[in-house]
Structure formats: C-alpha cells, structure tokens
Amino acid sequence: MKPGMIKVSVLYPKQEGKTFDMDYYCNKHIPMVAELLGNAVKGASVEEGLGGGAPGDPATYIAMGNLYFDSMDSFQNSFGPNAAQIMGDLPNYTNIEPIIQISKVVI
What we know:
The chain is of the alpha+beta class. Helices cover 28% and strands 29% of the residues.
C-alpha cells in the first residue's frame, strides 16, 4: 500500500466464551464486502491471531480484517450505503463486537 491511503481495520478481540468462524469470514463475508464496495477497495488482508508479545502469551485479537482505500471519501461513499448489510452479517460468523480503526498509511 502507498502513503496517503486509508486503512480500515476491523479487530476482533479474543475473549472467553466468544466464537469466530474463520472459514465463513474468509469465504463468505469478505467476498460479500468486496462485491458491495467494488472498485473502491484497493486491497484487503485477513489475519489470524497466534500469540501475544511474550512467548506463551495469548493473542489479543482472534482475527483482524483490513481494507485499503484511496481516500476517506472513497471509503465513506462505498461503505455508507452498504453498512447495514455488512454489519448485519456479523452474527453469521462471530458473537464478538469488533473494534474498528481508520488509519492513514504513512509509509
């Protein structure tokens, strides 16, 4: 990704009693999001948490999804009209309330 792009990170904290279906997320949710947002999305990644900062520490997040856009306007104009459908799919793969962060790529 290049400097100035917008990165939207969706972080799913690892918590006792919470579930996350990585197969559904990767094979159904992400393709649906990509289709809805279309060419506005310039890149995407999905990460699975394996561990924390010290050996043996648990991962802080069970999963993270990242989407990249050319600008904040591009993100807002593509996500806004589809937010209800995208967020409405959450119960199909998790019972975790995600943390969302929007960042500017610096390098």
